[in-house]
Fold:
Amino acid sequence: MGSNEGPALITILALAVARVLQVCNFCSTNSRRNRDTESSSRTDDRSREKEEVLRRDSESTLRTDNTSREEYDVLLSFRGPDTRNGFANCLYHRLRDAGIRVFLDNEELRVGKVIGGELLKVYEKSRIYVPIFSTGYANSSWCLREVAHMVECTSTSDGKKEILPIFYDVNPDDVKLKTKLYRKAMSKHKKKFGSDELKRWENALVEVARVKGWDLKGKG
Structure:
């Protein structure tokens, strides 16, 4: 990954998250629709202008950086029932509109499978992993496999890959297994997958939860 490409992608990702939240808030809160309309319009225009500049810069970098060409810029991991029809879908399309190559995984289609074959290549050829931690994320063994694999990929990437988590109606402490929310879900996996695999998933959750990401409350 080129020296300028990573920060540009992260900035576009941050703008996309902010924009999706703006849209969600606008749609869900009628009382705010007529408040500061002119100011909001100017802010939106500036945001779109900045995003367009960053999109062009990112595309230019992508065209010139042939030495570390990746298939995807961002990989989104989420639990379908929690966020598929809302935040995850909106974020996916927002990033696509900004010129970012996004892989949107669907854990519901991969029950019982392992991360291998073509999917393994997707992980190896992605730059930024974005797990969207939600209240039911740890209920999915597939999502837990994904997080563990993200950690493995980033640890052997020489700093070329990174994980940027989104905490969607959960706290980092939930993901760090300091509360009952994820601990209760993890205990249900032990009989089927064994203590070694469970420990691998737990270590990955704790490690990723230490990363500064986006803390989104009241969106679910």
About this structure: Strands lie at 72-77, 102-104, 126-133, 162-163, 166-168, 214-216. Residues 26-41, 53-69 have pLDDT under 50 and may be disordered. Residues 8 and 54 are 6 Å apart (CA to CA).
